[in-house]
User: Fold this.
Amino acid sequence: MKYLRYVLFVFICCFSFNFAQTTNETYYNNLYYTCKVWGFLKYFHTSVADGKLNWDSVLVTNLPKLKNTDTDYNSFLSIFFNAAGQMQTPSTPLPNVPKDLSYNLNTDWMKDDIFNSTSKSTLQDIFIKFRPRDNYYIQDVDLVGNPLLNNDKQYYSMASTTLETRLLALFRYWNIINYFYPYKNILDKNWDDVLKEMIPIIANCTDEISYNSAIMRLTANINDAHAVTYGTVIAYKILGQNYLPIKLKYIKGSTVVLGAPLGFPQVKPGDIIKKINGIPVENLRNNLRPITNGSNEASLERNINRNLVTFTDNKIVQLEIENEKGVSTVSSNLINQIDYNYLDNNAYPANLPEWSIINKNGKNFGLVNMGKLTVSNIPIMFNALWNTDALILDCRNYPNGTGWYMINYLFPSPIMIAKFTIPDITFPGTFYWASDVQGYGDFSKTYNKRIYILFNEDTQSQAEFTIMAFEQHPMAVKIGSQTAGADGNTSKLYLPGGIFTYFTGLGTFYSNFQQTQRIGIVPNIEVTPTIQGIRDGRDEVMEAAFNHYFGVNDIEQKKEIPQNYSLNQNYPNPFNPTTTIKFSIPSSQYVTLKVYDLLGKNVATLVNSVKQPGSYEINFNGEKLTSGVYFYQLKAGSFVSTKKFLLMK
Assistant:
């Protein structure tokens, strides 16, 4: 049924909230602590780590006992303690890991009142006797280090799940992220709170569709553009495998057609999609947002665009579009995934050749399509472009592992691209730093002219890492908009019911330890395509490179750079219903500006992106809010400022 996924998601959200108010909270609380105890034993107890116990079956077999309200919880926990047996006594001291590398290791929960003295003593004894060691359930990828979870897939192949195996899925996923996800410390939500939120949702799933939808919501909570979640139910019954033959882009609150094939002449690039099958597109986006993965707003909206054009059936789709001629309704047939991927992969700028030479005002620019360039053609490409006046390296795509092999043409010697935090699989919850110089080949000659690096939200992972190398060139200029903010090798995780999902398995940082995850690459010149530019067939990001080379500064706002962070009082105040908020930042930062009510609930997000140094004005419209006192809070790096304002209607 069309839009089943949206209806189901709304149902899940509403149902879980109401259900949590009226059912046995003790049961959910017991499940919360069971998840923690079961996962702790899985990774820290010597006999469980050996893999000789079927630890998943121990959980699945005994979970029904928790539904009995007469069950003594600590007696229930003794089942797990007894199954694991005695902890081996160590002969060496536990390594001392610095706090900044053990941020995923927290045992404070063991002191909670739900545990009696015997349970507390048992948990503490296990932790005291633990020593780093290999674990059956988790290994690492050779020569890389990100987690490898091929031994942790029991119940994965089952077609129909039960309450117990669904809870196993939640417990397995939560604990892997809890101990081994390198970015757990920068999530939007506290990971413990996510567990509390998801337990009633998972526990009350009634079929495979609601269960798969819940898992999508769970994985979206790690704020990771790598956290793509797959499964037959997701593919065919929630998102669908039938596609509208258009490529979308989200521009300042509008869903805009970026590309359309010749067979769909009613829709043109730059058309704004207002409704799909009569439903306002913003409603559809809001319903998709909580179950769509993304590291930041840029990658989240990009992935929503992809989900917007998929359908579970193959019926004709009606679109309400707006363009220069006004608002009209058009119809379209759907295409299959293979044809859509061909459309997606050949949309501009992906349809450009591996490299070409563009002459502008008598100057030759070497244009390199990083999404098509292959390693074997790098020497040929540089030979062809060596005498150009500048290079334009287009990274609005996914490279073919070419960055490492281009370093020797751009630098006189190997360079340090990044530092990595690698999960220590022998000591869950801790990490260690690793780094390496990169570059292969002959460094006898270096391209020493201007290079322009183009990027946007389609720039992800290896593409971001590639830019981290290129931007070290002394003549490099970065142009574009916020990248996906997911950089580092991925790990694959298996869940009951044929679901598998991914997460970023390595923490990736600049050599000065500056964070890249969720922030992405910060441009020197921020340029985002405009609706009119798309309609005119212009590549405004590439135009910015030419403008910069020739000293045209109309794309750059010349502002005096502030010396300090500041958040001004809004004006007017009180207001009805609009007001203006001003703030200043002295350096490029990931900035959030959010509005909260008196209970601390986030009622509006005004800014959530990387901002260049400067002063900004944001207009806030409180039309949908009731009269009262609210707060707005600015976060930029370590700077946090909160101010109060009054809405009077």
Q: What stands out?
A: The two ends are 42 Å apart (CA to CA). The first helix runs from residue 4 to 22. The domain at 240-345 is CATH 2.30.42.10 (Pdz3 Domain).
